[in-house]
Structure formats: structure tokens, C-alpha cells
Amino acid sequence: MNHPITIQDCIDFHGHTCGGVSLGFVLANFALDKLNAKRGDDLFARMECQNCLVDAVQCVTGCTVGKRSLEIVPNGTAALTLVHRETGKGIRAVIAVSMPEGLSKEQAKDHILALDPASVCTWEEVTIEIPAK
After folding, report:
1. pLDDT tens-digit profile of 44-74?
2. Under a CB-based contact definition with an 8 Å cutoff, are residues 41 and 84 in contact?
3. Is residue 1 part of a domain?
4. 14, 25, 101, 113: which could join 56 in a potential S-S bond, CB 3.0 to 4.6 Å?
5. 93: part of which helix (H) or strand (E)?
6. Of 42, 29, 39, 19, nearest in space to 109 by CA
7. Which of the 8 DSSP states describes residue 33?
8. Do 39 and 60 touch, CB atoms closer than 8 A?
9. What is the pLDDT at residue 132?
């Protein structure tokens, strides 16, 4: 894709609207901003969950399992570690909000997207061993 990735791109990739895709969209963009990186950079991502968030992270970052630039280590935490391969700089961003109960999928999406990303995610700098390509 040669245009900025939108939430609609992530929804289309995932197949339906939901709060998880919105959380992944915010998480991935937050991590890219903190890492001062962009889609297309030589990045490595590690997801600590195996759910809707992962699809949005793939779409936003361009990191995929097939390119060996995405590793899924499902421990139940909504967290993304993103590392710039060239610099070795990495961050771990974690979802720090809960989804209010009783929202429709569309309402959940709108709720997450209306929040300040800094209130949705926490982060820290990390160093991890990156698997070979």
C-alpha cells in the first residue's frame, strides 16, 4: 500500500469491525511513533496475544509471519514489542485500558479511536534478541 494505513484498511484486512482491531491500530501506530519508525522500515514485531489486535499490527507495521518479521508469543497480554533491525532500538507497548461492556462492535471501535493514544498505551524501551530473517 502506498498510502497511510487507515482503520478501514485494518478492518478490511481483518474482515469485520471490532474493538480489538481498533486497539491494534492504536497500539501499532503508538509503537511506530515512539520508535520513530514507519511502515516499510526494517522492523521486527513480537505480539504477546493471538487475537484481532495482531491483524491490525500486521496491517499498520507491515510486519508479517510470512516475512519472518512477526513473532507471536501468546501469553495473554495485549502487548507489542517493535524493534528497528538497523538500529536495534526497541520498545514494548502495552494496552492499558479496558473496553467498556455493552458496546456494539462499531461503538467499541469509535470509543477506542476517540481516546488519546497515550491514555490507551504504556511503553518502555527494551532490548530483545531478534530471530534471523
Report:
1. 999 999 999 999 999 999 999 999 999 999 9
2. yes
3. no
4. 25
5. strand 90-95
6. 19
7. H
8. yes
9. 83
